[in-house]
Design goal:
The protein has 117 residues and is of the alpha+beta class. The protein is built from 3 helices and 6 strands. α2 links the parallel β5 and β6.
Length: 117
């Protein structure tokens, strides 16, 4: 699980958001994503459950292990993953870049983080 955008996604109506994605490390395919308000440290419990459920529906199985950047998504995600029997491994974000770098670049090219209406 990682944040796709480098700059907040600005909306006129609802404020600023971050896009958080869950990717299959083997294929680098994004299985699911959710939006979290910029002021929140991580997505809500309901959003995390939706993210994991969407990933499960796509792969027809639950993730076995989640690799997350160290110091991010430390409470809600970890608690929900443990509740569902999913291992969580914290990794320095730099070590995840080989997997998530292209997705971030594509997101930046498509949305730029400058805002949507």
């Amino acid at each position: 699980m990682f944040q796709l955008n480098e700059k907040p996604i600005r909306t006129e109506r609802d404020g600023d958001f971050n896009c958080v994605a869950l990717m299959d490390a083997a294929s680098c395919f994004i299985l699911a994503n959710v939006f979290a308000a910029v002021g929140e440290a991580e997505p809500s419990k309901m959003a995390v459950r939706r993210l994991l459920n969407d990933a499960r529906a796509h792969k027809q199985q639950s993730p076995q292990t989640l690799f997350i950047p160290s110091g991010q998504f430390d409470s809600v995600l970890v608690g929900e993953a443990q509740r569902q029997g999913i291992a969580v491994v914290r990794v320095p974000e730099e070590q995840l870049l080989m997997f998530i770098g292209e997705a971030r670049e594509s997101f930046k090219e498509r949305f730029g983080g400058s805002g949507v209406q």
